[in-house]
Amino acid sequence: MKITQEADYALRMMCLLAKESAAGNTIVGAATLAEGVAVPTRFGLKILHKLSEVDLVKTSRGATGGYSLNVDPATLTVRRVIEAIDGPIEINRCLSETHVCLNNPNKDCCRLHHVFEELNRQLTERLDRITVAMVVSDGLGLGDLMGIIQ
What we know:
By secondary structure, this protein is mostly helical. The protein has helices spanning 5-22, 30-36, 41-53, 78-86, 111-129, 132-136, 142-149; strands at residues 57-60, 66-69.
């Protein structure tokens, strides 16, 4: 499993929206968001569209339109943003409900499946511990963030 660059940009956009919202700027233009995370505006719009489809951001139309957070950054987890873009986190394809393993079709009997399942559980649990608000908080140092996920 690899977190895509698109999910990385989505996380950065959500962090930028959280910072802007905390500074009193509740609506931010797509071009500003894209520039803030160093992506072309067209790609930024694609990401923002996906985020709006799952109600993480809301769109305001018109001359002063743009995007704003639709969720509290204190409850918005890193996992939720990643999964909004990349889908469910699965470190191995055998964890997918639809995958049929040619080596061992009975997943319950496969020891590797159980290992991957536990590792996946630990990863997703740690990603659920970190919120967007934590990432952008000036009160939390990097050591504090690392402590939360350990």
